Amino acid sequence: MNILYDEQVDGVRPDVDRAALLQALHSQWPSLEVLHQQEELKPYECDGLSAYRTTPLMVVLPRHIDEVQGVLRLCHERRVPVVARGAGTGLSGGALPLEKGVLLVMARFNQILHIDPAARTARVQPGVRNLAISQAAAPFGLYYAPDPSSQIACSIGGNVAENAGGVHCLKYGLTVHNLLKVEILTVDGERLTLGSSALDAPGFDLLALFTGSEGMLGVITEVTVKLLPRPQTAKVLLAAFDSVAKAGRAVGDIIAAGIIPGGLEMMDNLAIRAAEDFIHAGYPVDAEAILLCELDGVEADVHDECNRVRQVLEQAGATELRQARDEAERVRFWAGRKNAFPAVGRLSPDYYCMDGTIPRRELPGVLQAIAQLSADYGLRVANVFHAGDGNMHPLILFDANQPGELARAEALGGKILELCVKVGGSITGEHGVGREKINQMCVQFNSDELTVFHAVKAAFDPGGLLNPGKNIPTLHRCAEFGAMHVHGGQLPFPELERF
Amino acid sequence: MGHPQDFDDSAALLEQVSQALEDATPLRIQGANSKAFLGRIVAGEILDTRTHRGIVSYDPTELVVTARCGTPLAELLEVLDAARQMLPCEPPAFADDATLGGMIASGLSGPRRPWAGSVRDFVLGTRVITGHGKHLRFGGEVMKNVAGYDLSRLMVGSYGALGVLTEVSLKVLPKPRQSLSISLEIGSERALQRLAEWGQQPLPISAACHDGERLHLRLEGGEGSVAAAHERLGGERLEASYWADLNEQRLSFFDQDQPLWRLSVAPNTPPLALPGRQLIDWGGAQRWLKSAAEAAFIRKVVEEVGGHATCYSHGLSDEPFHPLSPALLFYHQNLKRQLDPRGIFNPGRLYAEL
Q1: Do B306 and A197 touch (CB under 8 A)?
Q2: Quick one: CA dihedral A17, A23, A26, A28, positive or negative?
Q3: What is the Cα–Cα distance from A162 to A92, expressed in whole angstroms?
Q4: How many CB atoms lie within 10 A of CB A411?
Q5: How far apart are alpha carbons B172 and B230 in whole angstroms?
Q6: CB nearest to B201's CB, from A141, A205, A429
Q7: What's the CA angle centered on B66, arms A291 and B33, to 5 degrees?
Q8: Under DSSP, is residue A172 helix (H, G, I), strand (E, B) or coil?
Q9: Residue B150 and residue A208: Cβ atoms within 8 Å?
Q10: Cα maximum dimension of chain A
Q11: Is A455:A470 a contact under the CB 8 Å cutoff?
Q12: What is the architecture, at CATH level 2, of domain A348-422?
């Protein structure tokens, strides 16, 4: 175990009487499915970030909300930590189990409860897959806008917990912008409704607070999302550039022209080559960078905007400019981008995906710095970038079987995130902090800010039983981490003792 | 950019908060007082944010503006306008000198809200003086940021109960290329049905209000889509200024004597049977009610359709905001206690218990 994911770094967790807990669960909820044999627990030892693994104390798979409530109450009484998990596709170890905690799997709550076309809403259980919502809404000409790349598998409960994004966020927003109402259970099993079927709700905006709270404040039991009418048409332009800086400037030029594309993605040469090898999307493999710009909406507007964007891209020095001729080509252009992660995965036994965000104007400098770090650490980095909203996904290539490479990849990743913070960005745009970026939280926030986060947590879960050790680092952890880092010429926690 | 009165007065604001914490003096946080009529009456020492003003950064190609909370909203909008950008949530000002801080603290959005999003949807980051006497930063100037809890959006609409906002970063958007307003003669029930149908189609509607007799629509987008929608929907041309008059409550509807209520409901809720007159905004999701009916009765009717009601007539009700369920109130109190342990920030403005 290293410092990144050892659950005991934030203090030794108390032992749990496993047999007694099992016994209590069985007697109170005889039909509740509980997994506790080693071989049954194995599939649940990690989420989408498989480098981090822990075998949970036990896994419960409820089918009824009453059971979830019962499990929470029981665990609360016995001070047993609970980690909620949806489809387990998260990329930051947010659903990483605890050796001394219950893993509460919500995947069986997979019913779409109601699609209301007149209100343009869908009310669903938390285990419903993201894409399934759009599929159910399709007969009404509606869809659910946020589309994380794992959308065929990831569940809406996890999307809410992580405030998931996707490739259309600049125009259509993140999960938080597309929610109306969430039902939750608190740590002691009390039901709360956040938001409402209207566009707002009285009191504090707890819906916003809970979105992206990574299972630290409550367990999501039902979600009502907004649906949008499907755009009449979508067109994709592909522009090639002989430098990343030029491609970056072109993005600013498109926005300066008053156009907000539905999607605006950038890939660097290594990512382009990997995607082309894998998908044969027809990408220009000699380009230093490509931009994919999707314009969607009403036919007449999209036509005008395509012409405008073409002009902007030409003036920005695009060496090649293509418009997808038909739907098949449009899908192919996107397939290259959407499969960039697995494509890069083919170049190397392992890869590590980062998720920093930066103000867009900082892109050329940050990419240059990443190239330098890549050389320093002796690991290749491919860059995929949600250019419209400043969310970078550098993919660090490494081989976990080579001694020291995982540690080097993690260290390089950490450096990249710190670079993002330094230029005014964030360590995570859409994947969440989870266990993975918990140390970098100490770089983005000072001890007073972290203290406020702990205060928020205390308002909902004073005993710290929901997903402990994720999202918000203890000041103790930051002091330990800070001892290795000097931030802005100053140690980040000068008031704390070093050890 | 830059205004002769631009000034970073955060040190003085922090000093006043620190003193209030020490003396346990409640503070009444105010800008231009343009929204003082909303909420309960607060007794406390005035903390005036207007000396802390000015735009801190604005880069139109980043679609982000950061400004101090005392910045007059009008000044901010003027700067955005010069770059052909806007705040899509169209916040009402209710006074010429309304400030950015008040806009965020009240979280009120204008006619474009159902299609573009609310004030909180456009907040990217804030700086806040906390109940522990610290000046802290949450969120940032980037579109996507999920590090830590979303304190910035929590501040929106909290009426100053959780801290003093000192600075806000907002996402802005280009103004639409084309905007055209029309008016159709159609009853309210039929109008709500048509709006529900149109909502399922990619029509460029960006405002929809029914005044009891006519349905007023604003179409915004590219030239092509606006022209096509106009051709399809027909109707008479309407002055664009109608929307500002609606937003600022300058329409004659708002002049009537009875108390004013805001009803927030699902957009496709049929017309509500309540005494008095109603004006339907937000494509059905926001209903303005002029009525002398009892608060409890209005709230019961609205609750039955899953909505809530706010009293906009100052001093009429001791509970202007819709009461919270006991469970929700409990967690509101917990949050208030955690973030404002000495209870100095606008005590009682939202609810007596907060």
Answers
A1: yes
A2: negative
A3: 10
A4: 14
A5: 27
A6: A141
A7: 145
A8: helix
A9: yes
A10: 72
A11: no
A12: 2-Layer Sandwich (3.30)
CATH of the domain spanning A233-342: 3.30.70.2190
> What ranges do the domains of chain A cover?
18-105, 112-229, 233-342, 348-422
Instruction: Specify whether the CB–CB gap between A250 and A313 falls below 8 A.
Output: yes
Task: Say what angle helices A18-28 and A65-77 make with each other, to 10 degrees.
Answer: 140
Burial group, residue B78, by CB count within 10 angstroms (0-12, 13-18, 19+): exposed
Q: How does pLDDT run along chain A (499 residues), one tens digit per residue? A: 344 445 565 677 889 999 999 999 999 999 999 999 999 999 999 999 988 999 999 999 999 999 999 999 999 999 999 999 999 999 999 999 999 999 999 999 999 999 999 999 999 999 999 999 999 999 999 999 999 988 999 999 999 999 999 889 999 999 999 999 999 999 999 999 999 999 999 999 999 999 999 999 999 999 999 999 999 999 999 999 999 989 999 999 999 999 999 999 999 999 999 999 999 999 999 999 999 999 999 998 999 999 999 999 999 999 999 999 999 999 999 999 988 888 998 999 999 999 999 998 898 899 999 999 999 999 999 999 999 889 999 999 999 899 999 899 999 999 999 999 999 999 999 999 999 999 999 999 999 999 999 999 999 999 999 999 999 999 988 988 776 554 433 444 444 443 3
ipTM of this model?
Answer: 0.98
Q: Closest to B147 (Cβ–Cβ): which among A200, A232, A433? A: A433
CB neighbour list of residue B352: distance below 8 Å, 6 or more residues apart: B40, B318, B319
CATH topology for B10-174?
A: 3.30.465
What are the angstrom distances between the C-alpha of B77 and each of B12, B90, B156, B175?
26, 10, 19, 12
Q: How is chain A split among helix, strand and coil, in percent rounded to 5?
A: 35, 20, 45
Q: Is A307 on the interface with B (CB under 8 A)?
A: no
What CATH number does domain A18-105 carry, 3.40.50.300, 1.10.10.1800, 3.20.20.100, 3.30.43.10?
A: 3.30.43.10
CATH for A112-229, options being 3.30.465.10, 3.30.565.10, 3.40.50.1820, 3.40.30.10: 3.30.465.10
Residue A364 in contact with partner chain B when CB distance is under 8 A: no
How far off is chain B from A494, nearest CA to CA, in Å?
Answer: 16
Would you call A495 exposed, middle or buried from its count of C-beta atoms within 10 A (0-12, 13-18, 19+)?
exposed
Q: B8: closest CA among B66, B61, B51?
A: B51
Say if A18-105 and A112-229 have the same CATH topology: no
Token pair for A418: 């710190």
pTM: 0.96
Interface size between A and B, measured as CB pairs under 8 A: 274
